[in-house]
Amino acid sequence: MATKRLAVFASGNGSNFEAVVRACQGGRIRGEVVLLVCDKPQAYVLRRAKEYGIEAFAFNPKDYASKGEYEREIVALLDLHKVDLVCLAGYMRLLSSVMLTSYEGRIINIHPSLLPAFKGARAIEQAFEYGVKIYGVTIHFVEEAVDGGEIISQQAFPYEGSDFDELERMIHALEHELYINTINKLIAESRI
Ligand code: GRF
């Protein structure tokens, strides 16, 4: 089986990016992260990319006339790198039809809740404030609807504590494992 070529899109910290890169470099994923796409030129994830020797495309959306314009540039880069799978990991922008049609069925996203509960950017805080007793993580294919698209995997765990930082650490640790396992599942099932 050929090694799969992955691109990761991220806007901030990049702990999921690093987890996937390390899994590839350590042989846990039969893949290679060939490109990081980042819409925030100051984001910490860019430092991680440099450290691991991963090529990065950092851009400022304000330098473009429209989303379609910068996405066409991104699609050209993905094509150039022969990317098999795009992994969104804390990429804080909706994709337009330019990306969605060019890479249909090959874009996945990780979300820190059990979808369809707690969609959007503040999922962990909202679940905590709501007082749920079961938390979890979802990985799904990306479609036009926010946090919509077919669910590929979900994992849940009980938490009844009151320490938000501890909860957040638990969710992120689960995310890293689930992202690696889910990419492996897609490869094993020849879905990418
Ligand atoms: C993660 O919680 C992910 O589920 C969400 O954004 C966060 C990104 O974290 N979409 P990191 O940048 O990978 O550390």
Mean pLDDT: 96
Main sheet properties: 7 strands, mixed
Kindly name the structural category. Answer: alpha/beta
Provide the succession of SSEs: EHEHEHEHEHEEH
Low-confidence stretches: none
DSSP strand content: 15-25%
Net shape: globular
Multimerization state: single chain
Terminus-to-terminus distance: 12 Å
Count of helices? 6
Compute the gyration radius: what is it?
16 Å
Please give the share of residues in helix.
25-40%
Bound ligands: 5-O-phosphono-beta-D-ribofuranosylamine
Question: What would you say this structure looks like, in words?
Answer:
The chain has 192 residues and is an alpha/beta fold. The chain contains 6 helices and 7 strands. It has a 7-stranded mixed β-sheet. Helix 1 packs parallel to helix 2 and helix 1 packs across helix 6. The longest helix has 25 residues. The protein is globular and about 45 Å long. The model has no long low-confidence stretch (mean pLDDT 96). 5-O-phosphono-beta-D-ribofuranosylamine binds next to helix 1 and strand 5.
Give a short overview.
This protein is 38% helix and 22% strand. With 192 residues, the protein is α/β, with parallel strands linked by helices.
Layout of secondary structure:
Blueprint: E1 4-10, H1 15-25, E2 31-38, H2 44-52, E3 56-58, H3 67-80, E4 85-88, H4 97-102, E5 107-111, H5 123-130, E6 134-141, E7 151-158, H6 164-188
Parallel strand pairs: 1-2, 1-4, 2-3, 4-5
Antiparallel strand pairs: 5-6, 6-7
What are its keywords?
192 residues; alpha/beta; seven-stranded mixed sheet; 6 helices; globular; binds 5-O-phosphono-beta-D-ribofuranosylamine
